[in-house]
């Protein structure tokens, strides 16, 4: 796990005006991303405040050397896969060099300023080519809430506290924040119907999740030890794994999610590095009456700091609210502290059968609901399965999402004595279903 160094000092400031202490992207954050300029060519960047720092130009500037230069050169093209593959050494060296160049008083300010572009002047793209996408189910409060809707006497299945549950999703339909989501068709079957029908989903839902970008790969037939798992993580993002609940209810037995999930997943564009989140590591522990993880999922080092403390929010804005100029309203607040399984445990379990993870693969945490009312990470929970609509300030009601609805996920890591690290937004608007031929 990353040690704290001068790049985490909350007293240090950047000469970039928009990267002040109230910014989600101060000098202590420095996430990676990919953007396209007016010419349309994709290039790797680092975000500082509301500016994008061109890594291609930085690599050619002569301001870097050693591993930092290698990392900047590798991240200069249209994806970050090769940078992810380098691992933490070059990435950390580049972070330290960037921190020095962007700090107040840096003598290279004029040269670096020439490499900055305001974010409104670029198009933000997916940061990596996603080879595979796996979605997990680590939010125990979500699992209990959903289980109680269908199995009131036994909400959690017997394996939940023993094995990190996951399924293989569809990488081809992952889109970056800002891209719309089209309401999907699927087979729907009412309880009293003789046969299903093909129709647009009537129970479209969001899921509040943390996304994980995989760094260095493991070879097929090998596994990753729990104490080595962090070295295979390139960074984090927000993730919304959209769900068609009525489609899922009909199709999920016996093999699990299929068309109810594969139509769309939205991710935030900025890769928040493990180094940026180092001040927000928290212990991993379990309730005394819960089973201890099997030995391959446990270690003293992991128990010390295997968790993450990130505060999460969901905001909703309807088409009517946008037309009236109303701001999005928060409908849920939760935290990554509620993950029953840690990210390291997900990586270790995913590879425990010899499955090879590749640089740029994406993992989803699963819905991160909290234990209290107002911390549910989906409308399925907030509306109690559609039986208790939520009422918005303008009088509109929602059980599930309607066409034109906009969902925004936000996240911040914050604690006394550390600079606040933001994730930006993960946002999408629901477009109407296409006409089926």
Automatic annotation (TrEMBL):
Residues 28-127 form the Fumarylacetoacetase N-terminal domain. Transmembrane segments: none annotated. The active site is at residue 142. Keywords: Calcium, Hydrolase, Magnesium, Metal-binding, Phenylalanine catabolism, Tyrosine catabolism. Its EC number is 3.7.1.2. It is an enzyme of class 3 (hydrolase). Mg(2+) binds at residues 241, 261, 265. Pathway: Amino-acid degradation; L-phenylalanine degradation; acetoacetate and fumarate from L-phenylalanine: step 6/6. GO terms for biological process: homogentisate catabolic process; L-phenylalanine catabolic process; L-tyrosine catabolic process. Ca(2+) binds at residues 135, 207, 209, 241. Substrate binds at residues 137, 151, 248, 252, 367. This is fumarylacetoacetase. The gene is fahA.
């Amino acid at each position: 796990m990353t040690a704290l160094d001068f790049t985490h000092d909350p007293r240090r400031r950047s000469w970039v005006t928009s990267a002040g202490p109230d910014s989600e992207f101060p000098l202590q954050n420095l996430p990676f991303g990919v953007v396209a300029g007016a010419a349309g060519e994709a290039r790797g960047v680092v975000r500082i405040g509301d500016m994008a720092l061109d890594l291609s130009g930085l690599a050619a500037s002569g301001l870097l050397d050693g591993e930092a230069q290698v990392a900047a050169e590798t991240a200069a093209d249209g994806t970050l896969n090769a940078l992810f593959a380098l691992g933490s050494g070059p990435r950390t060296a580049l972070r330290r060099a960037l921190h020095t160049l962007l700090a107040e008083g840096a003598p290279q300010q004029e040269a670096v300023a020439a490499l900055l572009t305001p974010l409104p002047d670029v198009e933000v793209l997916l940061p990596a080519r996603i080879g595979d996408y796996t979605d997990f189910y680590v939010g125990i409060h979500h699992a209990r809430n959903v289980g109680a809707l269908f199995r009131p006497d036994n909400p959690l299945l017997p394996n939940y506290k023993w094995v990190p549950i996951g399924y293989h999703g569809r990488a081809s339909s992952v889109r970056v924040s800002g891209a719309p989501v089209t309401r999907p068709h699927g087979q729907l079957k009412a309880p009293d119907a003789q046969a299903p029908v093909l129709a647009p989903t009537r129970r479209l839902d969001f899921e509040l999740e943390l996304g994980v970008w995989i760094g260095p790969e493991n070879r097929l037939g090998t596994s990753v030890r729990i104490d080595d798992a962090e070295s295979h993580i390139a960074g984090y993002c927000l993730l919304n794994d959209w769900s068609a609940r009525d489609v899922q209810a009909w199709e999920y037995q016996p093999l699990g999610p299929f068309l109810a999930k594969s139509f769309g997943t939205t991710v935030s564009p900025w890769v928040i590095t493990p180094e940026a989140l180092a001040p927000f590591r928290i212990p991993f522990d379990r309730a005394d009456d819960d089973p201890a993880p099997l030995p391959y999922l446990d270690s003293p080092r992991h128990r010390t700091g295997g968790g993450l403390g990130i505060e999460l929010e969901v905001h909703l804005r309807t088409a009517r609210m946008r037309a009236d100029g109303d701001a999005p309203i928060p409908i849920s607040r939760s935290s990554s502290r509620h993950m029953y399984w840690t990210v390291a445990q997900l990586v270790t379990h995913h590879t425990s059968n010899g499955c090879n993870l590749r640089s740029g693969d994406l993992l989803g945490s699963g819905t991160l609901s909290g234990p209290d009312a107002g911390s549910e990470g989906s409308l399925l929970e907030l509306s109690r399965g559609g039986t208790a609509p939520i009422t918005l300030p303008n009088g509109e009601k929602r059980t599930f999402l309607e066409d034109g609805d906009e969902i925004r996920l936000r996240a911040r890591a914050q604690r006394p004595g550390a600079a606040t690290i933001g994730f930006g937004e993960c946002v999408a608007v629901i477009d109407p279903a296409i006409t089926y031929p």
